[in-house]
Amino acid sequence: MRLIEAMIACILLISGISITTYLSGVYSLVDSSDLEKDSENILNVLSDPEVIRKITSGEELYRAQLKTLIEAFLPPNTMYNVTLVSRTSGETIWAGSNTIQQPSSGSDVVSGRRVVTISFSKSRVVYRNVDVMLVIDRSGSMAWEDESGLVKIEAAKQAAEALVDQLNMSRDRVGLASFSTTATLDCELTNDTTAIKNGIQNLIAQGWTNMGGGIKRANDEFQMHGRNDTMKVMVLLSDGVANYYYDENGQLRYGETQARQYALDQANQTKNLNVRIYTIGLGDPSYLDPELLKEIASEDQYYYYSPTAGALKDIYLAIAEDFLFQVKNDIIVIQIILFRFG
Questions:
Q1: Which of 324, 284, 319 is nearest to 302 (CA)?
Q2: 170-227: per-residue pLDDT in tens?
Q3: Which of 58, 228, 248, 330 is deepest in the core (most CB within 10 A)?
Q4: For residue 230, what is the DSSP state?
Q5: What is the number of other CB atoms lying within 10 angstroms of the CB of residue 193?
Q6: What is the domain partition of the chain in residue ranges?
Q7: What kind of architecture, by CATH, is found in domain 125-326?
Q8: At what angle do helices 256-271 and 211-225 cross, to 10 degrees?
């Protein structure tokens, strides 16, 4: 028994698996001759999220140690086949066995199955090809300095460029729309970093706030040039309240109530194209319409508040991380077969 305990301690130190997990799961296999019990104990061990993470990370040394451990604690003459399969991809993540023989008709055979959902951390990321439309407020108030001493439009330009720098232009594209009294498409979706940064730098702040118009210009670009096989993202920044809009004839009109509804209508059309919308409210909240920006955003957590222009860069980088990197959730099916030859 001391030899067995030493083997457990050695393997646990190398593999980094919780001692509690193994003592409660595998250790009871030592004196058990019941295949059902053996199967259940092995399933308990393999169902531990940390064990699955190590297996799926492809650590060959760990996989070999795990195989050795299973074999060390099965009763004599017991054969096993274990497989872990990703239900998401259909891929066999790991298969372990101590036999190439199949159980005969005279064998004692039991099988067990366990389904486990596991969430991988951001260290295990999935890169997604994206089309991104930046929608930037260039109304007159964006030309003001805020309490941090920064001119809001200049800080917005730097933050937008920081987001562009996070993209991989071999697979991603980015475009730019902006709005004041009128709304314009300043750069089509492109993988040309120089072109998009020139468009950003050319923005000049003046006029009123046609937020819905900015959304419409970005939406039109998605419809015209968006790729079907990519994730589509809109990032909208504003420091004010919507007050201008386009009527049904395309004519500019003033009116806060109508402009607000127009922005919501345009956002809903965008969402119908499966575009994820992030919104950022900048500056004094008394000059903002946070509820509108939250309604425009695809979900509540996609609305960000930036009290000062100095915080914009960090927010844009956080948004880029959110849509570029996906926390991978997977469903793992664990199948085990134990048998003794009759």
A1: 319
A2: 999 999 999 999 999 999 999 999 999 999 999 999 999 999 999 999 999 999 999 9
A3: 330
A4: S
A5: 14
A6: 2-119, 125-326
A7: 3-Layer(aba) Sandwich (3.40)
A8: 20
